[in-house]
Amino acid sequence: MLVLHHAWRSSASRRVRLCLAEKGLAYESHVVDMEKLEHHSPAYLKINPNGVVPALILDDGRALHESGTICEYLDEVHPDPPLRPSDPYQRAVMRNWIRHVDGLIGNLIVFNWVHSLAKVAAQWSDEELAERLKKVPSKERQEAWYRAARKPYTEEERAEARRKLVLLLDRMEEMIGQGRWLVGDAYSIADIAVVPFVKRIDEEIAPDEMQASRHPRVAAWWAAVQARPAFTDARIGPFTPA
Ligand SMILES: N[C@@H](CCC(=O)N[C@@H](CS)C(=O)NCC(=O)O)C(=O)O
Q: Looking at the predicted structure, is the pLDDT value of residue 241 above 80?
């Protein structure tokens, strides 16, 4: 059976759960406790050397990381229902879109970590922080953890992150065009890639921008996404406790 190492509120994990749910694939759930930094443990780093969630363990025991790659792999191995356009050009556009969205993750971190990880990290002593930072594989995430622990994002930085995420909605508005989905004429991994971002924009970061008066096509797209049974099955719940 597939084993998914994930966290319920992690954007990248949410993508993979959406993909698994669309395909109706069963999996064993291993929740990684990011507050306890389980994802930086030597055991987890063997599964995902980048020290982030998610990671998928295949039936034969091999591990796969990177949510976009995992979704593409699942679609190749379980092609029904298809989650990639059949046209090679559109597939290439889909991959570029996933890459573009991946590059925006830092802007979500600004809004997401403050709810839990930053609260935990702020309690660490300087020695604990130094020790923990050594275990973070990437410079970029070392910086994110340092910011979480010692240097909260300023209002200017939050505004800039919000601006970049609203630009994502502008870009989606153009891509949807006269159709319904982002790439081609069917729901695909291109849509899945951005669902966790839109969820956070809608619930906290810039809900006004999700109004039909601001981004009409994105608003219709978001209603259609949320109506999919897989959206419920994937448990894309609210990020912050009610
Ligand atoms: N590009 C990666 C990003 C994975 C990622 O950033 N995961 C976040 C949660 S959404 C994480 O593990 N953050 C904890 C950390 O950076 O320490 C993917 O798509 O799988």
A: no
